[in-house]
Every structure is written in structure tokens, then in C-alpha cells.
Amino acid sequence: MLEEELRVAVAAARRAGEEVARYRREGVRYSRKEGYELVSEADIHAAEILFDALTGRFPGDGWLSEEHTDTDHRLDRERVWIVDPIDGTREYLQGVPEYAVSVGLVIAGKPALGVVYNPAVDEMHAAVCLGAGEREPSRLTRKFDVLIGRGEQRSDDIPPLPPEAKTRGVGSVAYRLALVAAGRGDVVLTASGRSEWDVAAGVALCKAAGLRASDIFGEPIQFNKQDTWVRGLLAGEPGLHEQLARFFRQFKR
Questions:
Q1: How far is the C-alpha of 226 from the C-alpha of 122, rounded, in Å?
Q2: What is the pTM of this model?
Q3: Coil, helix or strand for 64?
């Protein structure tokens, strides 16, 4: 199921990533969008590569991307591609190898597949999560790694955590989710809001790995909404996820 979609998405992400890496080697211009977010010419070019490849092969699907003007057309589509051509543009421009091309497909608002490709280290993470079950919950008694954003680490913009938690800053949230899905970290946490395109692919990878992903209070994330904002993010092994969600709910008002 979704083998062709995954194949096309992987090829498109790799092609976009190769162009992103080429711009980084040869020199890249950037500016700021409304809201002061960074955007580079590599973001724009990668967005077009992904759009052409995915909508060209699957023309009936909806589209949501950071670098394309959003329309209501996607809202009545069962299948929607949710894409960030470079998640972690700041790290990309700084030369920090923690950015990623992020491609997710959601069906009826739920993650179906995810592709996260880090071209700086040629690291591809890709999986279909439809039908995947969760791991058996366990309770961790050891210290555990919580992957947070580099900016969150610099500004100490981290919610209170249990004493067993040890934080580690990693650039792109999509890449952080891919690392945890691959067993290279225990939890991804951000109390700050994110857009659907930041997290759709990474959430799919986590679900494919049997992990649980939700907002910070443990509520499910619904994708392809009119408002594309996601209220924080918590992803990890189901038992640890529930421990942390319960911990954060004490601060909920």
C-alpha cells in the first residue's frame, strides 16, 4: 500500500535535496518573509521540484507547502501532500548539517507516509505508517534524551521537565522526529507552535516506528485543517509519551 507514492516522494526529496546542497556549495541568497522568517532561493527552487514531481504524478491530491500560497482547494481532498522544502532554513544558511527536506502525505487528516531527507549528510528516512500499530508501552526509569530546537536551547524556551530528562538541541524539527523514529533519541518536544508542514512527515515516521505523536498535552494532531497551526509537539515511545503528557497536563489551563 502506497508503495508508488513512497517511491515518488523519496525520489523527489532526493532530487530537491541535491539542489539544496548545490546551492549551499555554490552560494545562496536569502531574505525574510512577513513575520521575519528566513527564506532562501534554495527553499523556493526545492518547493517547485517537489510540487512538479508529486502533483504531476498524483494530480488529484491536495497540496500544502510552506513556500506555496495556501488555498481552500486542499480542504475537500482526501489525500494531501504536506511539504517543507527546507525545514531548518537557519541551520541550512549557517552550514549546520541539521536541516531536511520534509514530505508527508496525509489521508483523511491522518499521516500516511513520511519522507525526511537530510542532504548535508545524505541521510534518508522514509516509511509508510498506514496500519502501523504502537509499541507496547513501557516505563523508563533511566535518564532519557529530549530533542529540542537549537533556538529553544539558546533562549531556554523549554517547559519544566522531569529530573530524568536530558535535553539536546537539534536544528530541524522534521529531522529531530526522524532521529527519534530511528532510535537516535527518546523524545521530541516543543512547547512552541509549529505548522503542519514542519511536522507531518516526521510524525508519520514516528507512527511507522510504533511511537506516539501528539500535541504537548497528548491530544491527537489532525492534519489538513483550515488553520495549519499545531499546538506544540510531543513524540516518543508510548509509555514515556504518556508519562510526559500527564506531566504537562498539570500546567494546562
A1: 34
A2: 0.94
A3: strand
Burial classification of residue 229, based on how many CB atoms lie within 10 Å of its CB (0-12 exposed, 13-18 middle, 19 or more buried):
exposed
Secondary-structure class of domain 3-128 per CATH: alpha beta
d(CA 213, CA 203): 6
Over residues 116-138, the pLDDT tens digits come to 999 999 999 999 999 888 988 87
Residue 148 CA, distance from chain mean position: 13
Amino acid, res. 123 = E
Tell which CATH architecture fits domain 144-249. Answer: 3-Layer(aba) Sandwich (3.40)
Residue ranges matching CATH 3.40.190.80 in the chain: 144-249
pLDDT at 2: 97
Question: For 217-244, what is each residue's pLDDT tens digit?
Answer: 999 999 999 999 998 899 999 999 999 9
CATH 3.30.540.10 positions along the chain are 3-128
Contact 68, 51 (CB under 8 A): yes
